[in-house]
Structure formats: C-alpha cells, structure tokens
Amino acid sequence: MVIVRMAHYSFITRHTGNTAFETEIGKHKVVMDTGSEGDDLGPSPKRLLLGTLAGCTGMDVVSLLRKMRVLFSDFEILTEADLTDEHPRVFKHILIVYRIRVDEQYRDKMEKAVNLSVEKYCGITAMLRKNSPVEHRIEYL
Predict the structure, then answer these.
(1) What band does 6 get if pLDDT is binned at 50, 70 and 90?
(2) Residues 6+ apart with CB under 8 A from 80
(3) Is the pTM of this model over 0.85?
C-alpha cells in the first residue's frame, strides 16, 4: 500500500499595531500592512500575493533552465494586475512578463520552461487562474 502525504501549512499571523500584521513562516517573518490606512510597514496582502506568483514561476523557470543547461542572466519578472471595482476587490486580469538575457539559440528552451511553469508546475498560477485570466510573455534583453 502506498501512503500519499498531503502538504499541510500552518502559520499564525499576529496583529502588530494599526493595520500591520506579521506572519512567521519557518524562520522567516513577513510583515503586511497597507499604505492607505496604515503605516506602510510592508506590502499589502494582494501585492504580496503577486510577489509570490513571480517567485513561484521564477523558481520553476530557473530550475528548468538549469536542467536544460541553459546559461542566462539578468532574469527578472514583472507582474501586473487589475482589480475589480466592486468588493471584494479581486484580480480581474494578471500579466506576467519574464525579462531575461539568454542566447538566441536557447530561446525555444526558455519558452518551454515558461510554458511548463505556467501550465504545469506553478501552484500559485493554477490557484489564481481559477479566478482571473493569467497572461504571460517573454521579453529578451
């Protein structure tokens, strides 16, 4: 019999004053706040979510490019999102732009790595796509 373990995450998030909250994730502390009503001590939860999207897909792409033995540099990811006007305000469209310097001979591998991340590996993309269209493109430096 094969036992399959499901991933389980558990964190405590504490109010630290005004509108700020701090979450301890393993050895790391993440501060969230809002600039409009709070003291702007950290990113808002929605902005942080977009950052985790970039981190998730970026880690996939780097891992895949390394496995494909593709040399690259100057890799950055731009994420943009539009919010709905009505509450709860959610992302109505998300854009991910991968900016990278890679030799022209490896561009097909870069495209493959991005597509694998977006379509198969990045769980954050999969979760967000259930609510919002997620568009992506690559800009070569």
Answers:
(1) confident
(2) 94, 95, 97
(3) yes
